[in-house]
Amino acid sequence: MVLQIFVVVFLFTQFLLAPAFKLEDILTDPKELPPEFRDFLSNLTEADETLLEDFANAGLSNSDEDVVNAIAALKKKSPELGAKVEKLRTISKGKIAALGPEARGFAEKAEEIGREFMARFFTDNKPTLNDLIAKAGEIVKLYKALSDDAKAEYGKQFPFLSKVWSSEETAKLISGRN
């Protein structure tokens, strides 16, 4: 889920998507972001961002074991940053574990899509805006296919992401680019 949030924020900040589209259309108040994530983002230094890029290269696209190893390596370089990343991962994994099978399957697949995207971003084969929108479209399609109960369950654990994936503005953005 941490990756989904990274992808969502990246989606709306790095590419400055469409002039008529504003993050505020989905995120009316920055406080809607999970507090841990909001605090994490607001306190990143340039050095932290560089370390996170290395972290992404080392583990975001791989198995849980690779992610654990990447966090350990990050902690060696910056114990404080490593601890923050580990905390976010623990929170996300706990929220995913609390989901029922259908919602958990969606969350895991969405995280996999996020990992694939972020891993590619840190390579020489950087994704384009259309690639990014296609990945968001994959997640939205999966979200829409969930039962109402699974959507409600997911929304309780991840209200911000649920709002993004169900937003009319997100749907317009995706349909306008495909």
Provide an overview of this structure:
It comes from Necator americanus (Human hookworm). It is found in: Secreted. Helix 3 runs antiparallel to helix 4, helix 4 runs antiparallel to helix 5 and helix 6 crosses helix 8. The chain starts with a helix and ends with a helix. About 10% of the residues have low confidence. It is 75% helix and 0% strand. It is mostly helical and 178 residues long. It has a single domain, classed as Four Helix Bundle (Hemerythrin (Met), subunit A), CATH 1.20.120. The protein is built from 10 helices and no strands. The longest helix has 21 residues.
Give the C-level CATH assignment: Mainly Alpha
Q: In percent terms, what proportion of residues is strand?
A: under 5%
Helix content: over 70%
Q: What is the mean predicted local confidence, pLDDT? A: 78
CATH topology: Four Helix Bundle (Hemerythrin (Met), subunit A)
Subcellular location: Secreted
Signal peptide: 1-20
Family: Belongs to the fatty-acid and retinol-binding protein (FARBP) family.
GO cellular component, one term: extracellular region
How are the SSEs placed, and which strands pair?
Elements: H1 2-13, H2 35-42, H3 46-60, H4 64-77, H5 79-97, H6 101-121, H7 129-145, H8 148-157, H9 159-166, H10 168-177
Index terms:
single chain, 178 residues, mainly alpha, Four Helix Bundle (Hemerythrin (Met), subunit A)
Briefly, what is this?
By secondary structure, this protein is an all-alpha fold.
